[in-house]
Amino acid sequence: MSQIIDGKSLAAEIDAQTMVETEQLKQNGITPHLVVILVGEDGASQIYVRNKERRAQKLGIKSTVIKMDSDTTEKELLAKIHELNQDVDVNAILVQMPLPKQIDEFKVIMAIDPKKDADGFHPVNVGRLFENEIAQTPVACTPQGIMEMFKKYQISLDGKNAVVVGRSTIVGKPMAALLLNANATVTVVHSHTKDLKEITKKADILVVATGIAHFIKADQVKDGAVVIDVGMDRDENGKLTGDVDFEKVQEKASFITPVPKGVGPMTISMLMKQTIDLTRWSV
Amino acid sequence: MSQIIDGKSLAAEIDAQTMVETEQLKQNGITPHLVVILVGEDGASQIYVRNKERRAQKLGIKSTVIKMDSDTTEKELLAKIHELNQDVDVNAILVQMPLPKQIDEFKVIMAIDPKKDADGFHPVNVGRLFENEIAQTPVACTPQGIMEMFKKYQISLDGKNAVVVGRSTIVGKPMAALLLNANATVTVVHSHTKDLKEITKKADILVVATGIAHFIKADQVKDGAVVIDVGMDRDENGKLTGDVDFEKVQEKASFITPVPKGVGPMTISMLMKQTIDLTRWSV
């Protein structure tokens, strides 16, 4: 039986620390300011943006949401970002993805001042991460939150066999970089991988980010593995669940994250922490 | 018995193409110009720089070597790079590593205009590589040369199990990114890895960049594997050799690169090709 990693409690701890640091900055006359740009009417995006806004307000971080029409041109969005880059009152900028199809997402990511890159997706920040030169560098929030979990639960990574399932820019690739920087042996598997089970079964650390409900079953997991589930999926009854078959896998894993209350709550907390970091680094 | 990948011939083919493209640029009034900065008196670095200069001259590429004293300050070097960044006559800049210890190598890499980054080491270029957004992006020359070998010998990568031994910024990490972008399953192993043999024995594609002579023996290689040896080591008799025990491993591999005449000759050829690419992209 495994120990369940309590993402909700850890997120609350991080929030408490962020609140203290926000207050300290304010006492020095600096109000950290996160600007989130939402283009269009995507329902999920609206919820994500609202959650970020609420969390920022709760922690004392100034938050501005800029809503732009779904027919916004790329040029208009880039002009808005340029304006925010120049604005000394803005410390962190996040453009909620996905964007309407007339806009090139990578161009948008490239346009954000790397020093205000709340998501850590700008290639110069990604490059610094892969070159293990991460002083004053924002890093993707989800894998950063997972690293906090390893730290909190004293899970050692050095020399461990880590397998990352999924190779997205948001989770899989930065996760691989962070694990490699922590001296784990890292394998990235994905939709083209053959014999996936043979590889996941060797993982001491297994991070799953496929977006497919219950993609990882107990027979794909090593006894005593640490299993991190990044999924936010719906099961056949519409209930929120993860990429891992939690009920069965928890019988084999040494540590496991649940869904909900696992990785999910950490991501927003890391975004808030990163907003404070960007603010401090800019002073 | 394996097929030997002839890096020397392939490098000559690439050079021939680069020469044609250089001539075309010149006919349009553009002379590609590579500037190499050499700081200090390191013997190996002097040879590398001379080889680059000669190759450039042979292919019709304008080449300038700037020699700076070993007591050059970081500030002086950064000022020189800034000057070259501004110079419209310069298309590609390379600072020969290693640098004297008073100079922070990463700061130097960060200072080079990413659009003139001959080595492809600037984090914004590294980040683009990892985000698989490599249009008009320079990429580290050694792994790029290895990708040319795969292409030339029609070695498919999609779904293959690729293992990269070594995690340097120059070879291991960009190699991992290129293999992942080509849909291979990628594992990066390094000095902290346990059970290295168990992992290398599963590799369909094995790229070795450890700098340790004959680090990989036949019993660590799968039958039919493609083995790429990035090493440039000296054996006990001072003879140039690789990271792979070539004599024994060639009996198991399907393809193998020799040392010398394998990966080595490709690196300078890719640097010249990249100089031309940077020139074309800047027009």
TrEMBL record, chains A, B:
Q: Where is the Tetrahydrofolate dehydrogenase/cyclohydrolase NAD(P)-binding domain?
A: 140-279
Give the pathway.
One-carbon metabolism; tetrahydrofolate interconversion
Question: Which biological process annotations from GO are given for this protein?
Answer: L-histidine biosynthetic process; methionine biosynthetic process; purine nucleotide biosynthetic process; tetrahydrofolate interconversion
Picking any one GO molecular function of the record gives:
methylenetetrahydrofolate dehydrogenase (NADP+) activity
Q: Which UniProt keywords apply?
A: Amino-acid biosynthesis, Histidine biosynthesis, Hydrolase, Methionine biosynthesis, Multifunctional enzyme, NADP, One-carbon metabolism, Oxidoreductase, Purine biosynthesis
The protein's matches in CDD domains, at most eight in alphabetical order, are given as: NAD_bind_m-THF_DH_Cyclohyd
**Which intervals hold domain Tetrahydrofolate dehydrogenase/cyclohydrolase catalytic?**
5-119
Can you tell me which residues bind NADP(+)? Answer: G166, R167, S168
Source organism superkingdom: Bacteria
InterPro entries, sorted: Aminoacid_DH-like_N_sf, NAD(P)-bd_dom_sf, THF_DH/CycHdrlase, THF_DH/CycHdrlase_cat_dom, THF_DH/CycHdrlase_CS, THF_DH/CycHdrlase_NAD-bd_dom
The reaction(s) annotated as catalysed by this protein in its Swiss-Prot or TrEMBL entry are:
(6R)-5,10-methenyltetrahydrofolate + H2O = (6R)-10-formyltetrahydrofolate + H(+); (6R)-5,10-methylene-5,6,7,8-tetrahydrofolate + NADP(+) = (6R)-5,10-methenyltetrahydrofolate + NADPH
Instruction: List GO terms (cellular component aspect).
Output: cytosol
Q: Which PROSITE patterns match?
A: THF_DHG_CYH_1, THF_DHG_CYH_2
EC numbers for this chain:
1.5.1.5, 3.5.4.9
Which purpose does this protein serve, as stated in its record? Answer: Catalyzes the oxidation of 5,10-methylenetetrahydrofolate to 5,10-methenyltetrahydrofolate and then the hydrolysis of 5,10-methenyltetrahydrofolate to 10-formyltetrahydrofolate.
Task: Enumerate the PANTHER family for this protein.
Answer: C-1-TETRAHYDROFOLATE SYNTHASE, CYTOPLASMIC (PTHR48099:SF5), C-1-TETRAHYDROFOLATE SYNTHASE, CYTOPLASMIC-RELATED (PTHR48099)
Q: NCBIfam families under this entry?
A: PRK14186.1 (NF010783)
What family name appears in the similarity comment?
Answer: Belongs to the tetrahydrofolate dehydrogenase/cyclohydrolase family.
Relate the assembly described in the record: Homodimer.
Q: What is this protein called?
A: Bifunctional protein FolD
